[in-house]
Amino acid sequence: MSVPKNEKPKHENRLIYEKSPYLLQHAHNPVDWYPWGDDAFERAKTEDKPVFLSIGYSTCHWCHVMEYESFEDERVAEELNKNFISIKADREERPDVDSFYMNACMALNGSGGWPLSCFLTPDRKPFFAGTYFPKDDAYGRAGFLTLLRRIADMWRDKRDEVSAAAAGLLGHVSAGEKRGAFPEKADDEAYAELCRSFDGVNGGFGGAPKFPSLPTLLFLMRYGLAKNEAGAFDMVRITLERMRRGGIYDAVGGGFFRYSTDGRWLVPHFEKMLYDNALHIYAYSEAGALLEKSFERTVRETAEFVLRDLHDIRGGFYTALDADSGGGEGRYYLWSPRDVGEALGSADGTRYCALYGVAAHGNFEGRSIPNLLKQALSSDEDRNFTASANRRLLEYRDRRPRPFRDDKVLTANNGLMIAALACAGRIFKEKTYIGHARKCADFILQNLFSGERLLARWRAGEAGVPAGCGDYAFLIWGLIELYEATFEPCWLEQALRLTDSAGRLFWDRAQGGYYLSGSDMGDLPLRQKEYYDGALPSANSVMAQNLIRLSRLTGDPGFETRAAAVFDSAADGVGRYPAAYCGLLCAFEHAKAGGSELVIANGEGVEKMLLALPRFAPFHVTAVCGAGYEKMAELALFTQDDEAINGRAAAYLCIGGACLPPMTDPSALRERLERKAAVY
Are residues 88 and 192 in the same domain? Predict the structure, then answer.
């Protein structure tokens, strides 16, 4: 759908002073927007008006549509400015605000999405919510203008009904999870549910629209290892293979789009998100070590895209690329045989079109999304040809109008990219990836703090917005991965410091689990916790995994005790629908497996010892101590007695709470680690 742009803005509102690219996109609307904050709600109280809250993000296609249709329209602006106090919020800056009001929308409608359109009382309680509304009435459905007038009338004439609706909706939203004993068979039940919903032909789960469900794939790899279940590996292999061959993967430029609008992974929603691509790098790296060596190529192409198009020279990573470009959705990415021929020449163009399904009739709005769904690249000759051809096509494509780039640096997304690059660098012995992960971690730690308080967003030289639990959780994850890729104690030290801060800010002392927003924020009617997966694993599931790994790395059982409390605080929801909690089940699988801990005391031959480490062992942790790693003696007291033997590096391996005699022979260590009990 083409979205015209207003070339000559006639207005300017308060959003002009914000840093968020999404808010700045609306800074010239005739709507009298406020950013999220006390000023708007104070005015709503003073003038006794309801609040219209619109939540979205800068690369959202339907957010652009609603802006053009409604928020740039003078009649809509007149209604909003006369009868409402209007607030714009960037869901990526305030995921806790988005989550709270999205839950209200889900409670009312059974579904949600963006743009999120909510109507609130001046004390921030929602009483009506929806998503995209067309401006005018159509097909028996009220348009946005009609809706505004009806709600204004209700606010004036039926205030009791509005108050009752707000109270009832707040009750739904505040229900949350119920604490109990975590179901011991939740992993088996989740696996059974996933088997029932798995698409054995196309991969993935359920029908269209189809999402990558990457937390689910991470769980399946861990479940397959723990239970020796080949079917779990098959689901992962088929899904990853079909996705990388589908249109959801950008064959020309690398990287993955948001999701597929169909069930075959052919037609994507064309936005590219940093967090999606970080999780793809992580999942394909693990699967490359465990299941299929060829997945390494997908990792490298995706990392190349991220480092080329989303990388800030100072070390951080930008948030996303828009779905729209050149006046319509996906225009930057679509091809005709003529385009391909111009870029590659007649012979190579014909060969490429045959391989990638580029045809005159197209597969999306008369043009083609290159894909390999009908055939794989079966020979080295084909793979070499397409690698060269795609480089030339990328050069040709870059002459087109490029998608808008949201250039804010978000702590949570960058933490996830640190984790992904560190994991890929360790598995594939790629020092460049580890170097970028290190540089990104340095950037976040140096630029996104106000005193001891972590901040959520950096843009144009300025950091702001207090970090939520997700920011802490994903950054800690990244730092742990970076530690295990480098064994530099500074990263573990920072992970421990942030874990302590997260406990003070977010921990629920009464029921267990972590709140989304900090105890120092307080600008929502209530604090919420989330445990189920969305596009990302929840903050609680990542924190649970972090706690288990930190417990094993430091020898402090208190971390694992807290992880157990996270499990129990999620017991009610997990018991009802385990497959929605695969991120949490990754952590649960680790806790249940026991796993192993390895300490290598530095000495002669330490490099060969490190080469003996398994590439994928999710229930195993490794630390290095001794000369050059003295800080580990403070961070992990149990390493104090682990020393090199006669100057040679020594490996101290403990499995399931039982410690083996130290080893100085790398081949003996490798042989021991390759046994199932050592890593599961």
Answer: no
